[in-house]
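Changelog entry

Holo records now carry the ligand SMILES as an explicit input line rather than a separate metadata file. Below, a converted record for flavin-adenine dinucleotide, shown in the new format.
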Amino acid sequence: MVERKQSGADVPGRARVVVVGGGYAGVVAALRIAGKAARRRVPVSVALVNPSPLFVERIRLHELAAGRAPRRIELARLLGARGVELVVGRARRIDAAAREVEVELADEEAAATGAAAAAGANGAAAAGANGAAATAHAAARTRRLGYDALVYAPGSAAAQEIVPGGGEHALSVSDAASARALRERLRAARPGARVAVGGGGLTAIEAAAEIAEAFPALRVALATRGRVGEGLSERGRAYVARALRELGVTTLERVRATRVDAHGLHLAPEDASAPGDGAADRLAAPGRLDADIVVLATGFRPAALAGGSGLATVAGGRLAVDRWLRAPAHPEIWGAGDAAAALDGDGAPLRMGCATALPQAAYAADSVVAALAGDAPPPPFRFAFAVQCMSLGRRRGLIQRVDPSDRPIERVLTGRAGAWVKELVCRYTIAVLRFEQLRPHRRGAPAQAPRPQRALGADGGERLPHGAAT
Ligand SMILES: Cc1cc2nc3c(=O)[nH]c(=O)nc-3n(C[C@H](O)[C@H](O)[C@H](O)COP(=O)(O)OP(=O)(O)OC[C@H]3O[C@@H](n4cnc5c(N)ncnc54)[C@H](O)[C@@H]3O)c2cc1C
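Structure line, unchanged by the conversion:
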């Protein structure tokens, strides 16, 4: 049952901003919008929707899988400092015509909202309290959030389904639940058990190295199309190959994972007609990599919410956005992070990464505040890559210099220095969130904006003032 509820993001006289997704992009966007709006005295109320009450440090999930304790970051505390309302639930649909997001509340949230509603019912008619509580609970399971501006940042997930059987028989380091399940399997594994990691990109390499270092009694193999670290420079690839060798990781290159089952990975030579590099010779049985635990790191799949809501998507489901990070037909919607397809200078979608998500979120936040304040649009979003960073366990790392278009150049930092820089990068991502949380701002926005504000029409022009009931 769907019921419209007055929310913290629905205060008369304030523009309503909804941020979908509480990852790196969503949290930075929400905090920055709230902080900047307060500084500029633009009255807004901001709500952030996320399925979990905890922030997931996704770039450390391979560390979590290998047994390192994750830092506990409560979203409510992080966001509360800026007055951002946390709605714990999953956005199921964006109704762009009505400017509403339909949220399926998580159980705890539903219970809390249901209990609050039931308390009111109790005061009026104590005798019917139980029935009222049950009804209120059911009604509160779905909540609609109206918005004047929306930031779309629901991120991405593991693309396990790329390999048949992957969903049932493989784990990943892409989300917290899977990383935790992998940690339990690794801890329970007997000495000599085999771990197969499918994929040869940064995440696969980081996962294989981390597992091999933390569980030296296990036998870890990495199988990939092309070469391991295909996007790296020669020097970068050579260092990765050496580090993996030192950690005891076996590598199989130019093979394609065709299936996963309870016994391991099924592989085929990438090009059956090519002689190959002898990799297939190292398989235990022709075409099979036996394994007790299979980890797939075969890429990320963007959240399906945009496509499912009828919004234009590109690149396998990422929200299509223009050079201002706005959905072309809906300029009141901004996209940031893995779920949106911001374009690089050549017109290709930027690679998914924290490195690209954070600046997009900051840009989108500034644009939202500027638009709500009635300012002219900012210059288009621009992004230039500088480095790719990779951990290889806790004692080794690789910092690969790249050109502004993300192409590797022959400059690398390796070893402990590389590990330390990578660690600094991880800390920096949290420092960015804290900065947006703690940055000083003038408190107390006025009831009315000092300048006429505008909500955003499909043509980018003015529409209803904020807070108008929908
Ligand atoms: C092991 C690992 C290591 C990595 N290392 C690096 C690295 O070194 N450098 C780098 O640049 N990148 C790295 N990445 C990639 C990086 O983590 C992602 O690019 C980054 O998390 C993207 O941020 P985001 O905010 O767009 O999405 P996410 O961090 O995925 O956050 C999205 C949030 O939205 C939530 N959500 C999803 N659907 C909905 C919905 N329907 N409604 C509401 N909320 C929803 C999710 O639960 C999540 O909390 C790594 C990734 C992994 C897995």
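Spot-checked after migration. The CA atoms of residues 39 and 441 lie 5 Å apart. The pocket of flavin-adenine dinucleotide is lined by residues 20-26, 49-51, 56, 58-59, 61-62, 90-91, 153-156, 173-174, 203, 206, 303, 305, 337-339, 352-355, 357, 389 (CB under 6 Å).
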